Amino acid sequence: MTTKRFTTFEGVFTPCLLSILGVIMYLRLGFVVGSIGLGGALIVIVLANMITLATALSMSSVVTNIRIGAGGVYSIITKSLGLEAGGAIGIPLYISQAISIAFYVTGFAECWYFIFPQHDVLLVSLMVWFLILIISYTSTKLAFRIQYVVMAFIGASIFSIILGKGSGAPAVVVWEQFSIKNFWMVFAIFFPAVTGILAGASMSGELKNPKVSIPKGTLWAIAVSFVVYTSLTFWFAKQVPLAELRTNTRIAVELGRWHWLVIAGIMGATLSSALVMTVGSPRILLALGKHSILPFSSVFSRVSKRGEPTAAILFTALVSLITILLGSLDQIAGLLTMFFLITYGMINITVLIEESIGIASFRPTFRVPRIVPLFGSIGCVSVMFLINAKFSIISILVIIGMYFFLLKKTSSIYAPDVRSGLLVYLAERFAKAASRLPYYPKIWKPNLLVPVKDINAFARILPLIESIVFPSGRITAFKVLTGLEEGVKKDLQEQLALSVVPLQERNIFVETGIVEAEHASSGTVTIMQTVNNMFFPPNTLFTILDGGEDARNSFQDQGIIKEASSEGLGIIVLKHNEKVGVSQERIVNLWIRRQSPNINLAILIALQLEKNWQGAVRLIQVVDQESEKEEARTYLLKLRNLMRMSTDGDIKVMAGSFKGALKEAPPADINIFGMGEEPDIPMIYEVADAVQTSILFLRDSKHESALA
After folding, report:
1. Nearest-CA neighbor of 27 among 180, 251, 213, 298?
2. Which of 141, 513, 521, 655 has most Cβ atoms within 10 angstroms of its Cβ?
């Protein structure tokens, strides 16, 4: 259990400010001015701070809307967009903060080299790395207490720089070698200076009041640091020629009234920033471990008796050590920029989504206009691609890959998020747009309304239903209850929902429901009338005939079919053969009657079965005389060509009576017939008895078109 022990000043403002007023200010700000002039440097500073400010405002908005836990930004994204999105961003965020430790340690070593050029830079870096590890491993409180001493030295060093005098610039140069490529190269080196805003958020799990501390401390740190950076930029441009600024990275030390004070400020700033990241980044790893996002999560999720994530601290130290051994200061700066831009972009996108979808749960006490996260999102993505398009694409693909990997990974922790709300919002928007467009048969797909009489029988024919609707059709299955005892409804609802799980596992959209009514037919009619007025209504009634003798003369199915037709639904009536089912799921016999009004739905369903069974459709027609067979065959060939049907299936023309043709029909796994204006249930049973297969009788709704 982590202890709530830090206030706004020590837990957010101080670590943020010290991370911002760090190695870039002392060792690279002069280079920025010298490379692109005063005007270019100010644009870099303003643009970087605008992106940072938009991100800070977005972060402030979202933390006042949720109970933020350990992990800072990781916790924000997880609670808004889910564990998968949080993990996909949290892992790069953790890596970027772990790498930034190496960035600050390398900056310290460079400064040490100014004083002691005989000392090896790598050896100094390793010694400082070890010192930071000991302090952070021993006590987080000790690391934060050192901040106050460091802040005093930084303030004094800035004062020393402003009081100092350089060789003097002949004139303040506003633009110097200003090219687009050069500008973004300089921007990439400078941007890590403003990434310290996440330092305070990373301690969210140990802040006394994170909802107040994170917004207040972060925004004040940005404001103070912006004043400092712009002031020093003007001072450098006025006091030192640009050529010297470009080549002399120790200009801040030489410019200071008291050199030792500036050196102390640099060392203190880099040391404290490294300490802040060494303390903060393991907290992100701890949160990732608690949610079982990473391998060895059980190890990283442990805390000591003092509340310190010791395993996470040691692993973070190892990551930073590897980076120290492999990278230079400028290389690390460019890498950090990309990682932080991705993280900043996701913070802004999170708030933009929550503000846009209009959910009632988004009620932050610190609300920002939608333009703020929009600007932050666009700014981060744009700057990424302007700096390095290739690396940006790779980074985005890596995050997408991590997201889908985590999507398949089972987590024991449930985190409510807004993804479903976002999808509903998008669906509503598209639905409104679609409602203003005319219907066209080209967009037809099988969306079935299925009244369920017996759940077990329904479960047995689910493979056939799947073959009709897969991949993009929908199913609305319901059962009507008539006067059953209390408690039965819930049990049947669970059984019905459980029966369609195989379809849902195939990513088919299925809805189920139980309806109470006095009669099964009246309940079914009520359902049809209700769903027909919804925006996404079923377009076809799929009804299953019972197998008993009494069902042959039942008027209930006939009434339901008539009502479905009057409601504009297509009709599919299934008489399932309990003995053979649909056998090998290969051959479909499609019986065609010339000038049939039901030819479109029949062909569409036959094609669905052919595709999902990887089978073939055999076209069959019955004519009165032998002399008519050739003409019928020509008609079927033209029909097959017109309807763009596969040529794998046979064409069969038989002369004689329909009943006689049924007995002579070639074997198939299912037979499909058109239905007359008046549903003749007894006749359907007779046909089923004759062909000895499962059969479908269909009627068009006039909204289908096999030609489209």
Report:
1. 251
2. 521
